[in-house]
Structure formats: structure tokens, C-alpha cells
Amino acid sequence: MDVDVLSLLQTFQKCPELCSVFDYSRLRQYFELVVLLKPKLATIQSSWKKGPPPTLPVNIHEFLKRCFSMSDYMGKLAWEHLRCFAWTFSFRDADDVHAAAIRHVRVFLRYGISLEISVYNLQPPTYVCIDARCANQLHSNKQSMQDRELVEPATHAITIFTKDLGAIPAFSTSRYCRSE
What we know:
Layout: H1 5-14, H2 24-42, H3 58-67, H4 72-88, H5 94-112, E1 121-122, E2 136-137, E3 145-146, E4 151-162, E5 166-176
Helix pairs in contact: 2-4, 2-5, 3-4, 3-5
């Protein structure tokens, strides 16, 4: 696991309730699920924000609660104390990401589909308009421009055909630029 173990141990000392839900393997699973959910989580943040959101969207909170049979309180407590560790957790390479997706596909199929969450969530490659004419002039500095964020995400159920897993239900999200 690629996290600061000492800090993680201190977190569990400060919040021993987490021990009722997480052992090493479940903690690793939590971190892996968060990494797989990062593209979905990124859609709720402005493009300028860094790091994990302070709270989870309802559907992702419910998904993680169901995956770990946690109460609402424990789900919020887990995110509050583990979000930074989960956010910085990473896989070594694309093969590890793929292996994690295969490892967790059943969990996504069981708990995620009704919440519009899948192991595969297709997102736009950018969250800002690529047309330079759409940029907004900054009031504080008339010489600087800020990219216009794409808005109003629309999510649709799709099917992804994979080599290893066959047809998998998934979701695709699109956005548009208000100035066009």
C-alpha cells in the first residue's frame, strides 16, 4: 500500500470505530474503490480544486456504505478520516488499474448500477471549453482569461464490451458549454 502507514495508524488511534469496519484487506479495497471512482468524483468538483471532496455525493456515499455494510454514520466517518489516504493511493500502472477493475466488478454490478455507478464511467476528456473564444476575462486582471467550465452533466446508461469481462453495464456523462 502506497500510504503513510504511521499517519494511517494515528488515524485509527484517533478514531477506533473504524476498526469495526476495516481490516487491512477491506482498507485496501476501500482505497482501490475510491481510485476507481475518482473520474466520477472529479465531475462534482470545479476544475481548479485539488484533492478529495470534503463530502461525497449521495450515490457514491451509498455505494461505499453498501460495499462495506456500514451505517450512514460510519460511511461519513470513514470518508472524513480516510479520504486523504484513499485519494493519494495509486496503482503502479494501467495493468494494476485493470486488475483492480476486474477484482471489483462484482461489487460495482451488485451495488453500483442502481446508483449510476459502474466500474467503467466515461467522462469528457476535459471539463472546460476547448474554444479559446469562450474564456472569461478576469475582473481582477483584464489581461488574464479563465477557461469556461462545461456544465450540466447528463449521464446515460451504456454497455461496454470488454475482452476480459464481456459486456458490462456502464455510464457515459456529457457536458456542454453555455456560450454556444
